[in-house]
Amino acid sequence: MYRTEYHRPATLAEAAALFERLEDPSYLSGGHTLIPAMKNRLAAPTDLIDLRRIPDLHGIRRRDDRLVIGAATTHADVAASAIVRDAIPALAGLAGSIGDTQVRHLGTMGGSVANNDPAADYPAAVLGLAAELLTDRRRIAADAFFDGIYTTVLEPGEILREIAFPIPQAAGYAKFRNPASRYALAAAFVARLSGGCVRVAITGAGNSGVFRWEDAESALYGRFEPDALAGMEPDATDMMSDMHGSAEYRADLAAAMTRRATGAMGGVNIL
């Protein structure tokens, strides 16, 4: 058994200083990917730096035309927030569909987004809503943030502080879940932003993780209703294939979830 030291900084500055000083540290937020990886010896950090008690990483507030959520805010808090339900009900519904009660009360939005699991829910909302991600060093647009499976443009030691979501004219989320893990086999977040811009983000299905389905965006820009997507599917060569479903199956699921999300404006459709 290897030795791991646990640290619980009170401020962002203290967390950043610990990361610079320690040998091979990892930040800890919800821990739903990191802890299982450690148990299976796929990760062995010398130190864990727990970010969950830092006040600057918490909170939900509406700022003009944006909904701003701290990175250490739990899924349960997002799902229960009257502010979120009023501004972006589809985001509250998405948070309420994650895992089970225990997962929702421990997992955090920032941990999910920074980890960029290919089957995670939040990356679809971040990309679909054209969110802006604020770190302790810079601001990053959603289109520039995700960089492949389990990879983002965050630099070593960089801390995700909060995510600012533009409040859309309408948004919906639909997910087909693995019945055991409740991770998405395919899910779609569809949003119509101010000015009529339409964005469609698919998670759970792509070889490279979350992605925008631009052909669907073009179709919905002209006619924002499920029937506008009739006969359309993402390219199956871009879909993942594993024991849970072939690439062709996931392409079909992604298309079906996009149609359902378009028809579920203001809410979610979970299968």
UniProtKB/TrEMBL annotation:
Organism (species): Halovulum dunhuangense
Record protein name field: Xanthine dehydrogenase family protein subunit M
Keywords: FAD, Flavoprotein, Oxidoreductase
Family annotation (SMART domains): CO_deh_flav_C
GO MF, one example: FAD binding
Pfam families per record: FAD_binding_5 (PF00941)
Occurrences of domain FAD-binding PCMH-type (ranges): 1-170
